[in-house]
Bactericidal permeability-increasing protein (Coregonus suidteri), 515 residues
Amino acid sequence: MQENKEQRPYFMNYSHSIYTRASNQPRALSMLSLLILLLNLTNHAFGENPAIKAILTNKGLQYGSHIGADWMQEKIWSMIIPDISGGVDIGIGTVHYVLDGISVSGCDVPEPSVEFYEGVGLKTGISGFSISMKGNWHTRFGIISDGGSFDLAVFNVDVTSVVQLGSDYSGHISISSENCDARISKASITFHGGASFIFQPFVTLFKDQMTALIEEKICPMVEEHVTDLDQHLAEMQVSFKVNSALVLDIPLTNPPLVESIGLGLDLKGEFYSVQSHTDPPFKAEHFDLPKDDGHMLSLGLSEFTVNSASYGYFSAGLLQAKINDSMIPKTSPFRLNTTSFGPLIPQLPKLFPNMLMELQVYARDVPMFSFQADKVTQEFPGAIKAFAIQPNASRTPLFNLNVDSIFRGMIRISEEKLQGLMKLNNFTLTLASSEVGTFQTAALEKIVKMGVEVSVLAKLNAKLEEGIALPTMHHIHLVNPVLKIQQGFVSIASDLDVKSAERESISEGIYPYQL
Ligand SMILES: *[C@@H]1O[C@H](CO)[C@@H](O)[C@H](O)[C@H]1NC(C)=O
Ligand SMILES: *[C@@H]1O[C@H](CO)[C@@H](O)[C@H](O)[C@H]1NC(C)=O
Ligand SMILES: *[C@@H]1O[C@H](CO)[C@@H](O)[C@H](O)[C@H]1NC(C)=O
Ligand SMILES: *[C@@H]1O[C@H](CO)[C@@H](O)[C@H](O)[C@H]1NC(C)=O
């Protein structure tokens, strides 16, 4: 957009400089919003081993930056630019002016550069940004009013910004502006219509003033947005409900670790029962999550995270089931009654002839998971209480069994949930107490083992099939996740995809005071 000698720029003492907020906002900040939404940080105390770790690689950073760039381009077109007004001293008096109806008529937003800035945070840069605008001008000089239209262009804007990443006392990620630098190499303005020729001689001076004014506004604008983002982070959702029984808390346990090749986050990663919200009687162990530069993100979930979920279910009393005869398949010759138990416990049908029975199966303690290379083991300390159902429906206790099972299996990722399938590996049954005298348990063990497989194991697998949600956001999807079971933790390396239809709402969410 060249100056047109026929057109007359006319105001000089450009006293208001509201201009285009955010037109030069480094888009890379949107990448941060993405990252933060992805990790959905919550608040809690420090001083524990993290049970979930995340590493954002350079590949992930570049993807986030790219999404930010797309979003920024769309935003610039719909940006609302406030009116500009002021007065210009032209030697024989002051011309009062108003520029209004300003809209973006074109923009060229180059891809920003983003890199990790070791020990600090992120360094973002945008170079060669241009934007053109059009609008109307109105002047008043004494009693003379005049008006017309104008075109304005700002070329080759360069902005570099360094933001520092940290954490606040409650475990949110924090962000602050560490450094900012902005340069505009060229601006041009042309006026159309009215008596604008009067101001033609002042066009260069006006342009230089305006360029300087815009230039010095850019960094405060960037800083304002960093502050807004920090504020938004500090207010983010503290924990999220995974299902009707569990909530997951993932505040930072340490400040973010920024290295030249990636950003590491240590998160609490503890599930709680919605009801009791108590800590389990075990602690998170230290683990090292390996970097995987081929994927955008690596996540590590320790045994603790999974066991805290297990504890949550246990403490909410959800790991129990009642079994009665109506649950035994009709075709089974073995019924859940004292007659069927006769061959196993000879005295039982004598004491309680031909009565239906009920079994209460429950976890005696928290079922604990452990991870070793490529396999998951779960020890289930179970118990069975057996009752005879009297004709008047009252339950008469018969005996208590301890049933210790070791399940082993595999886990996988499906639909962004951790899912699995377990098999019964070891099984021992012992008589803990009896109201009907002692008896041999070998034959009973075989039958109960079968019962465990069709009831408890089936229930457990149903739970694992329902899945434990991974700490990702609904807008951000895992692409080709690779899950590995390692010693003490599970690692998931994945690429990410933000669905374009959902980008808008992500941006809205993170920038409440957008443009
Ligand atoms: C067996 O359990 C089911 C489900 O809990 C229940 O509806 C049914 O009444 C029980 N049957 C007996 C005989 O208690
Ligand atoms: C108990 O089971 C036996 C088969 O073992 C069956 O013949 C009998 O009818 C059952 N009794 C009751 C009360 O269900
Ligand atoms: C139910 O029947 C049993 C056995 O006959 C008896 O001991 C018990 O007191 C009865 N309970 C009720 C509530 O009637
Ligand atoms: C599990 O079963 C295997 C083989 O039956 C046995 O060697 C092992 O000791 C058992 N483990 C436990 C913890 O009971």
Notes: Helices lie at 28-39, 58-77, 203-234, 303-315, 347-351, 442-454, 456-466, 500-510. The CA atoms of residues 71 and 503 lie 7 Å apart. The first strand starts at residue 52 and ends at 57.
